[in-house]
Amino acid sequence: MLGSKKNKLSANGTDRIETLIGPQVVIRGDLQFSGGLYIEGKVYGKVIAGEGADSLLTLAPGGLIEGAIQAPKAVISGQLLGDLHSSERVELTETARIQGNVHYRLLEITAGAAVSGQLIHDQAV
Asked: According to the model, what pLDDT value does residue 52 have?
């Protein structure tokens, strides 16, 4: 059904979050995670989900990542300056701002999201 939220990822924090990077936190360097990662602060480096992990990255409004993201699932509501590689699903909310390419299997874009780059569909193998 159009507009159904049944299969949506959670941009509002209802999914399990193991790690929270608060709005005052600045990380310089690559970050590897598994499980749920919620970023409200700034990360200057790559953000990479561990191999084989069923991980969800949420970039909150006001959050910034300057570097590539590699995660199975991602909800982007903040600013990304770099490429996004997702093997499962990507959601771009109305406040998402991306300067880079988005590699995805499933993609949902809400009106208002902005992508300055290519949207590249990766077929399931």
From this structure: 74
* Residue closest to 33 by CA, chosen among 123, 45, 120: 45
- CA 41 to chain CA centroid, nearest Å: 14
Burial environment of residue 113 by CB neighbours within 10 A (0 to 12, 13 to 18, 19 or more) = middle
Report which secondary-structure segment, H or E, holds 104. Answer: strand 102-104
Domain ranges of the chain: 19-115
CB-based contacts of 117, cutoff 8 Å, min separation 6? 83, 98, 99, 100, 101, 102
- Tell me the per-residue pLDDT of 46-102, one tens digit each, with 9 for 90 and over: 999 988 778 999 999 999 999 999 999 999 999 999 999 999 999 999 999 999 999
DSSP string, 41-89: SEEES-EEEPTT---EEEE-TT-EEES-EE-SEEEE-SEEES-EE-SSE
Q: CB atoms < 10 A from the CB of 64, how many?
A: 18
Cα gap 29→26, rounded to integer Å: 10
